[in-house]
Structures are given as structure tokens and as C-alpha cells.
Design goal:
The complex is a heterodimer. Chain A is an alpha/beta fold. Chain A folds into 2 domains: 138 residues, Rossmann fold; 141 residues, Dihydrodipicolinate Reductase, domain 2. Chain A is 42% helix and 26% strand. The longest helix of chain A is centred in the C-terminal third of the chain and has 21 residues. Chain A is globular, with a radius of gyration of 19 Å. Chain B is α/β, with parallel strands linked by helices. Chain B has 2 domains: 260 residues, Aldolase class I (TIM Barrel, Alpha-Beta Barrel), CATH 3.20.20; 60 residues, Helicase, Ruva Protein, domain 3, CATH 1.10.8.60. In chain B, strand 5, helix 6 and strand 6 form a beta-alpha-beta unit. Chain B is globular, with a radius of gyration of 19 Å. Chains A and B meet through strand 8, helix 7, helix 8, strand 9 and strand 10 of A and helix 4, helix 12 and helix 14 of B.
Chain lengths: 290, 347
Amino acid sequence: MSFKKTGVAILGTGNIGTDLLIKVMRSPFLECVLFAGRNLSSPGMTKASLLSVPVSAKGLQGIIDHKDEISLVFDATSAEDHFKHAPIFEELGIKAVDLTPAKVGRMCVPAVNLGECLDLPNVNMITCGGQASIPLAYAISKANPDVEYIETVSSIASRSAGPATRINLDEYLQTTEKGLQFFGACERTKAILNLNPAQPCVHMQTTVMAKIANPDIEKTREIVATMVSQIREYVPGYQLLLEPIVESGRLITMVRVDGLGDYLPKYAGNLDIINCAAIAYAEACARRAK
Amino acid sequence: MSTLPHITVCDATLRDGSHAYSHQITLDQVRAYATASEAAGFSFLEVGHGNGLGASSLQVGESLVPEGEMLRAAKACLKNTKLSVHVIPGFATIKREIVNALENGVELFRIGCHCTEADVSQRHISYVRSAGHEAWGVLMMSHMAPADVLLEESKKMQSYGAQGIVLMDSAGAYFPKDVTEKIGLLAEKLEVPVGFHAHDNLGLSIANSLAALEAGAKIIDGTAKGFGAGAGNAPLELLAAVLKQRGYKNSLDLYKALDVAALATKLFAGSLPDSNDITIVSGLAGVFSGFAKPVQRAAKQLGVDPRDIFFELGRRQVVGGQEDLILEVADELARRTSTNPNFYPIS
């Protein structure tokens, strides 16, 4: 008997939603049964139609109309919209993977807490910078019990930041900071985001800096290296650019994230890392349901 | 004889100077300087971390004094001079920083972003305006975009509610003809007044400021004794002299505007910017002036030439806020030239 894939829907047809679609189509465990948005002529919708994926311009209503085929929905709209969608998904019994900074459900970073998120009705994928920086902050806090302060800076290509990202910069910062607080076991955190318009486009880079009275640099390097290899299992383009070092009283480490080049070119590692995390989560749920 | 317009002079000493002082400006310095700025009659005094609200960080440098205390201390010394702040979305948020700054008496918010990214300023400008306060749009690193792009970005900010648009030459890379072209276009096409913020990396801060005025700028930025990032800004004392001599109307008391130079020399002794090989290369490479200190630090730690770091950063077209790349570039240069006897790999 042939293996039945888990039916998923994608709500939101911008950069994130369209890139997710391509990743879902490649998945041995997931099948996109609906790609829903508001505008049939958007670039994402056009792409989905070309790929012969069922589309709907009725947004949330499209999901409701197809509820019986959908086990899981990726919400790639906006934080504001997700607040409205979340209770409806829950009522329909559809698991929600939230790619907005709404943070309704538990924050999920697959390399850190995948197992404890599998049974939840709603999980939040934090932010792209969060997916890149939080595992490093977590590793740093495992190696050093007294982390006083953690900060992360991400630089992404302007081209990879769509209108929703730009209008939600404040939410991006707040949600990333909350994630660092929670996973980095550190009260004081800060997130910074830079958009860089350089041509050719810059690849996503994320730096994590920490203030630690007596950092154990060897242990930090060891745990960070292990963490990086765990992340690479679901984000192949995640690479350590600068091993943890101490400079000017700061512990610093830096990664670069090359994308898979699914929807936007490879520079858009920011799209890739949050989407790869969402897919890793959805596939783990699908495997478990078998 | 045609009458020249009234020029709004913004004193950015206690904000841009933060870069020159490694963000260690004290409350006593704030009070002493703010008192002098008020006496000199500057229209606005900008206060805070070099990268603006919420920018005290390991990335750019931590401020000695929390921004709320700096703002309150300055405000207490001001009457006619209005208190302003620099705000970069991506560093500062509305809830965490802008709301507090409003409570601390800030009257003008200058919302800045990289010169091609104006749409990130929409919410911050709108918020300030809806709270009933003044907001301008600031396009930073504006040497990196052509005039038509700057106009398009300025128009976006104007549509969000910005009541003025300032072009910053954050890298000190402009020549007067660039100023004439860019400011001239904006002054002609925008409904709101246009301003210019110079840096002196190539020794052109006053020449460029004058070019801006002649091209129609009605707002001009400067700092006492040029106390600002890299080679510093257009010195206020010289701007005051130029405005007087050329007949531009302004709100300054000439002698007291000249006095801010001596006060800055006293308050910030040993840290006033000076032109050197590194600031010149920063201007040539078109890299943010504020990178000078961290570049020198990284160059020393990794045994590479700081000028090579600047040129490589310029090649990569880095923008303000990307200080973390300095270390990566220095590390890469050190590896590339590992015959260098000073090279110790850091990873």
C-alpha cells in the first residue's frame, strides 16, 4: 500500500509562503492540499498555479472550506492576522505552525525543543533571526552558567525582506528578544536587524554576542559546534563563520545562512532558516502520526 | 536683492559625538553642553547614543548613561532649543524606546534608515505624528544611492508624515557637486524642508554644507568642534560663521555659537575627532564613519592594516549597524595574508 502523506495548507502567499510551498512539495511526508491567499495574480499564486497546486483567493475561508483535508496549516500572513486565525484553527482541529511573530503558541526551535512541541495545537517559529541565533544562545548558556546579557544582530538582503517583514520590524525585535530570553536563560537580551541593499545580494549573517564574567571558551566552542551540526540536519546552508572568541570583553560567534534557493535565490537564508525549521517540525509531526 | 531663507541649525554634538567618545558621555557633560547649546540659540539639540535610541549594545558600544537619564538631563537645561533624538528602526522600537522618549520630553524624532529602505520608517514616523509630535525622515549613507532613488525614498517618508528630510553623508564621502545634485533635486521636488548632515572624512564638511544651503537646504546639522564619528561633522562654530557671512537668517547668537567650540574642547579633551589615514580611507571607501574605532580595535587584535579593513568593508557595501562584520572581515584578511608575522588565528 502506498504511503499517505499528511495534508497541509499554506496561508499567505508572500515570500515565506511560496518558499514553504516548494519545500512542502519536496517533502516525502507532506502534501500541500491548499495554497490560500487574497490575490490570485500575486507572484506566489502564479507560481503555485504553475505547479498545479490547488489555490484559493479566499484566505482563511479557503482553509475552513477544505478543513477535512487539512491536518496542519502554515500561517505565513502577519502577526495581526494570526491572532485572529489561531482560535479558528484550534476549533477546526487543525494544527497551526505560526511563521509570524504573533507568538500565540510555544516557541519552537527544532534543534533545541522539537520533542516537547509535537503535541501542541499551535507552535510559533519565532523569527528568522531567532531561528539562527537562539540555538547559539542556548549553546552559550549551556557552556556558561552565568550569562549576564545576550544580543544578536542579523543582516539580511533588502530584496529578501518583503512588505510584512518591513512593517513588522518592531515585532521581529521583540519576538527575537523573547526567544533569546527563554532559550538563553537570560533576562537581558537585545536584537538588532539590518537590511542591506548591496548587489550582489548579501547572504544572511547572524552574530550572537554575550556578556559573561568568566567565559569557558573551549566548552562554548565544543557545544556550539555540536549545535551547528544539529541545525545543519534541517538547514543545510547554516555554517559557522566565526567560532566563539572573546573580543573587547564580549563573547562573539557568527554564522552565515545560505538558502536552498527554492523561491528566492540562495542569499535569502532568512527565508530558508525559518521555513526549514517549520518543515522539520511538520515532518516530525507527520512521522509521529503514522 | 533676494532674501535668503531662514536656516534651522541642528546641534548633534551630544548624539554624533557619542561615537567619538565611545558612548561614555556623562550627565555632567550633557548638562554643561546643553546649557551652552540653548544659550547659542540652536533650533534643536540631539542627544543620545551615536546610533540613536535603543542602540546601546555590544554591537555598537554600550552607553555609560541610560538614554532616559541623558534625555531628562538635557531637557532640564533647554527652553527655546528643542530636544531631538535619532531613531533607527531595527535598533529602536516604538513601545520600548519612542514611548519613553516622549515621556522624557523629546520634541523631535529624526527617524533614520539606510537610504534605500525608507519603508521601514513608516510605523515610527506615523506613531510620532499621531502622538502629536514632530518627526523627520533621515536617509543615512546617502552617498550610496543616486539622486532619483533618494527622491523616491524621501517621498515615501513625506507620505508617512515626515515634516523634514535630512540626507546624511554618514561616511563623509560626498563632494560638493554630489550635494548640489541630490539636495537640489529634493529641495525642488519635496513639500517639506530638506537638510544635510555632513562628515569631514575628506575635509569637505563645510564646503558640502554650503553647497547644500546654496542648493536649497533649509536645515543644517553640525557639532561643536566637529565632535562626531570618524573625522567628525561640520563644526557648528564654522557653520555659524558661514551663515552669518553669507547672509542666511538664523536663530544663533554668533558669539555664543562660537563659544561652543571652546566648551567642547574643554569637555571632550583628548577625544575631539581629527583627520588621519583611517578617517580618510573611511571616506574614500564610503564606509560609515562610526566604524573607525572598532576597525582600529579589530586591526590591532588580528594584526592587519585597518585601511585594508575599510576598503574591504567598502567593497562589501556594508551599511550602518553592521559593525559585527568588521571582525569577520579582519579575520578573513588575516587568513588571506597568513604570512603576516602578527597573525594569530582566532578560530
